Amino acid sequence: MTATQTGAGERPKRSLVERRFPLDLHPRIARIRDLYEQSKRFKWNPERSIPWAEFDGARHPEAVREMARWWWSACVWTEYGRIAETPALLIRFCLERGGESDAKMFLAARGTQEVLYLEAATRYAGLLGGFIESPPEKADEAAFEQQLYQHALDPDVQPLAYIGAQCAIRDGLLLEHLREALRGASEPVATAILKRAVRDKEAQASFGWLYLEETRAAWTPQDRADLAAEVAAVLASDGPMKHRVVEACYLRMRPQWRDGDGAAALAALGVPEPEALHAITRRFVADARQRLAGLGVDLRDVACPRLGRL
């Protein structure tokens, strides 16, 4: 990294410069190295690991399958940005002088995990009636296209703050939502995909928290402030956009169902109720605030457009 001169009172501007040597590949964060080794043992194959032949579309009403294919398609829209973000974050670690090799190795594995989930989710949406290639409203596309890869490569965004916000917090929240989807799932294909997605997302969220815990001794007051600001920005955003898409479907389709029947039918296919996800989000933020406080980071109340103050 290099810094350029700025006006009085401004922080220096940084630029990304590759300074690779001396090359250090020795383990430095053992628990993250363990996550990397675990990811190799738990690698799965969407073609062979998922019981595709057990899916019986006739058992599920057409309206339910239509709703579920929107959800699973939106899962793909939500996660697809990671195809660019993960290698960008890996590049950032490789450019940062002294970037830990353990983090680089895990991020390489994370890219594979994401591709496997995307492949399985896309295929499942196809079974449910066809993968939907884009959100129903043109205006929603920009919300999914978050350009996270640019943020990961922004020299003025510290890797510590980025990992805390995007890995510990964003991945942690997505993990809790996947767990909720798995709790209600009973259809064999949905259950098999979600079990593997939960396991992989557990590793991804653990990576974020472990990195914070293992590096905290070297943090400066500015590091803590930057981390709190990045986390607040993530929480103040609209959250995983698939919830908004699916909520619109719920409102349109609920009058067709008796109370509770539609939610149970959708849960079997791995589609949780939006209200349940809202409650989970609130609990997660409260827990994350306490956990960050234990690391010396003060996360104040955040105004979320959909959920109010968190």
List its traits:
310 residues, mainly alpha, two-stranded antiparallel ribbon, 13 helices, 4 strands, 3% strand, globular
Beta-strand residue fraction: under 5%
Secondary structure category: mainly alpha
Which parts are unreliable, with pLDDT below 50 for 5 consecutive residues or more? 1-9
The strands making up the biggest β-sheet line up spatially as 1-2
Distance N to C terminus = 35 Å
Element order, helices and strands? EEHHHHHHHHHHHHHEE
Quickly count the helices. Answer: 13
What's the SSE blueprint?
Blueprint: E1 2-4, E2 13-15, H1 30-41, H2 46-49, H3 62-80, H4 82-95, H5 101-127, H6 138-144, H7 148-152, H8 159-184, H9 188-215, H10 221-236, H11 242-253, H12 261-268, H13 274-294, E3 303-304, E4 308-309
Antiparallel strand pairs: 1-2, 3-4
Would you give an account of this structure?
- There is one protein chain.
- This protein has 310 residues and is mainly alpha-helical.
- The chain has a two-stranded antiparallel sheet with strand order 1-2.
- The two termini are 35 Å apart.
- It has 13 helices and four strands.
